[in-house]
Write a structure and sequence with these properties.
Number of domains of chain B: 2
Strand content of chain B: 25-35%
Strand content of chain A: under 5%
CATH superfamily of the largest domain in chain B: 4'-phosphopantetheinyl transferase domain
Order of helices and strands of chain A: HEEHHH
Number of domains of chain A: 1
Oligomer: heterodimer
CATH architecture of the largest domain in chain B: Alpha-Beta Complex
Radius of gyration of chain B: 19 Å
Largest interface: A-B, 21 and 27 residues
Number of strands of chain A: 2
CATH class of the largest domain in chain B: Alpha Beta
CATH topology of the largest domain in chain B: Ribosomal Protein L22, Chain A
Radius of gyration of chain A: 12 Å
Order of helices and strands of chain B: EHHHEEEEEEHHHEEE
Structural class of chain A: mainly alpha
Largest sheet of chain A: 2 strands, antiparallel
Distance between the termini of chain A: 15 Å
Largest sheet of chain B: 4 strands, antiparallel
Helix content of chain A: 55-70%
Number of helices of chain B: 6
Strand order of the largest sheet of chain A: 1-2
C-alpha cells in the first residue's frame, strides 16, 4: 500500500494546479499550499477529498492550521496509527 | 471602500535614485521594488518565503497597498503601523501600541487583488478568478447549504459557474469578516436569494446571531468574481 505521503502527493498532483501547471512538490512535502499560490477554493476542495479518501474528519480549518502538506501527512498518520 | 490592486507583472523601469516618501499615496501599478519599500522586516521575510513568483508578487503588492490606504486613513507614518492577528489569523492594525479604529480585509487570490476598508463595523472581502476548474457538484459543494446545493445542481453552463462563485465569494467574505475562517460551518447559513438571482446588493443576518445586520455586495468582471461583507451599525 502506498504511504500517506505518496497518496497525498498523488491527490495534489491530480487536483491542484497553479497557473495551469502542477505544483513542484518538494520530496519532504514541506510546502504551504497557500504560499504556493493555491486559491482557497482549491485548498478546501483538496481538504474534502482527503477527508473522503481517509474517512476521517478533516476540515479546511484544520488544513489551514497544519499549514504544510508535511504536517497534513503527520496528522493523517497519527489518526490512522 | 474597496480598492482594486493591479497584480499583473510590471516591467517598467524604476528610478532607483528617487527618494521614497512613505507618507505619500502609493502608485498601485508601481514595480515590486516600490511595494517592497513599504513592507516591514517580518513582511519581507514572509514575502521571501513564497516559493512562486506570482503569489509572492500578489502578497507584496496587496500588503503595500493596504499599508498605503491605512496610513492615509489613520494619518500615520508607515513606520508607525504594525499588524497583529486574532486567534484565527485575521490581522488588525496597531498604531502607537493601540488597536487602530479601522476595519480592513484583503484578498489577493483573484485578479485584481482587493483591499476593503471601513471606519467601523467588521468587513470581509473575497475575490476569485472565474477560470475555476471545480465541479460545483463535487465534494467542494458540501460547503454550501442544502438549498444552495439544489440550485447549483439545477444550474447549467456559465450560470452554474457564476452561481458557484457568488455563493463562494459571499460566504468567504462573511467568514473573513467574522475572523473565523473555515472553522465556521458555511453550510449552516444561506446566501440571500436575491444575490443568488444576480442582484448586486442585499442585507443579511446570520441564523446564530440575527441581531447583527450585514450589507453584502457582489462585484467583479469577466475575469473575476468578488464579494464584500460589511457589518451595519444600527
Amino acid at each position: 500500500m502506498a504511504s500517506t505521503a505518496d497518496r497525498i502527493r498523488t491527490l495534489v498532483n491530480e487536483n491542484i494546479e497553479v497557473d495551469g501547471k502542477p505544483i513542484d512538490l518538494p520530496d519532504d512535502l514541506d510546502i504551504s499550499l497557500t504560499e504556493a499560490g493555491v486559491p482557497s477554493t482549491d485548498v478546501v476542495a483538496l481538504t474534502k477529498l482527503i477527508a473522503q479518501e481517509y474517512g476521517v474528519e478533516f476540515t479546511p480549518d484544520q488544513c489551514g492550521e497544519l499549514n504544510t502538506l508535511k504536517k497534513v501527512v503527520a496528522y493523517l498518520d497519527n489518526k490512522s496509527g | 471602500m474597496v480598492i482594486h490592486v493591479d497584480l499583473r507583472p510590471h516591467t517598467a523601469p524604476m528610478d532607483h535614485t528617487a527618494p521614497m516618501d512613505h507618507t505619500a499615496p502609493m502608485d498601485h501599478t508601481a514595480p515590486m521594488d516600490n511595494a517592497l519599500a513599504w513592507l516591514d522586516h517580518a513582511e519581507r521575510a514572509r514575502w521571501r518565503r513564497y516559493r512562486y513568483e506570482r503569489p509572492r508578487r500578489e502578497f507584496g503588492l496587496c500588503r503595500a497597498a493596504l499599508r498605503a490606504t491605512l496610513c492615509a486613513r489613520l494619518g500615520c507614518a508607515n513606520e508607525e503601523l504594525t499588524f497583529e492577528t486574532s486567534h484565527h489569523g485575521k490581522p488588525f492594525a496597531v498604531v502607537g501600541g493601540a488597536r487602530a479604529p479601522v476595519s480592513f480585509n484583503v484578498s489577493h487570490s483573484g485578479t485584481p487583488g482587493l483591499t476593503a476598508r471601513a471606519a467601523a463595523g467588521r468587513i470581509g472581502v473575497d475575490g476569485e478568478n472565474r477560470a475555476t476548474r471545480h465541479d460545483p457538484d463535487g465534494p467542494i459543494g458540501t460547503v454550501f447549504a442544502p438549498a444552495e446545493r439544489a440550485e447549483l445542481a439545477a444550474a447549467r453552463g456559465t450560470g452554474k459557474i457564476d452561481l458557484f462563485l457568488t455563493l463562494w465569494t459571499v460566504k468567504e467574505a462573511l467568514i473573513k469578516a467574522l475572523g473565523l475562517g473555515f472553522s465556521m460551518d458555511t453550510s449552516a447559513f444561506e446566501v440571500p436569494p436575491a444575490l443568488r438571482r444576480g442582484a448586486r446588493e442585499a442585507t443579511f443576518r446570520f441564523p446564530h446571531d440575527p441581531v447583527v445586520r450585514w450589507r453584502l455586495n457582489t462585484l467583479g468582471s469577466a475575469s473575476f468574481a468578488g464579494a464584500v461583507a460589511h457589518e451595519l451599525e444600527d
